[in-house]
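Comment thread on ticket #2218

A.B. wrote:
> Attaching the input chain for the structure job we discussed in standup.
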Amino acid sequence: MKTLAFNGSPNKAGNTFHAIKMVTDELEKEGIETEIIHVGNKAIRGCTACGQCRKNMDEQCVLPDDEVNQWLQQMKLADGIILGSPVHYAAMSGTMKSFLDRAFYVAGANGGLLRHKVGTSVVAVRRSGGLPTFNQLNNFLNYSEMLMPTSNYWNVIHGTGPGEATQDAEGVQIMRVLGKNMAWLMKLVENGHGKVFPPEQEAKTYMHFVR
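C.D. wrote:
> Ran it. Output below, let me know if you need it in another format.
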């Protein structure tokens, strides 16, 4: 089994990285391969709402010159996914939002490529805005019908300078428990293949309220 983690911070080794690493360390103890991809320092354009990915059905965003399509194919092959972001103005980082908007829309428009994969979110914050950011990240997982492991509190860790999050004792425990629970859930899914069958996927119902 393999888990992909996406670091949405501009800083490659900042507190978001440390939060992710606390989770992946627990996964690796359980024999699960992990890879951390640094998204936050890339130039990722936002979705243009062209709808071509839904029309073409080729699992590709038509916007060129970045790594979104490559990352999406890696996500398709992975068993687990971790989304990590710092807090910028009580929200996730802009680059992370652009990446998730495009990758998750393509995945959904092409038959639900991430459906029933195990996915979780982690947030690194200086002081406040952690929960709004955590909720933002979870929206992508919920919409995609992913399976979400939990911890013993919300997945937010505190620190300012790089590495300070390791001094947040409660935050460290949250990430450790999350990693253990994620490994357990991934093993349940793996061991259930061919024994417990998932519900049939329903076509999405769309409705608007303009009369």
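A.B. wrote:
> Thanks. Noting for the ticket: The domain at 2-192 is CATH 3.40.50.360 (Rossmann fold).
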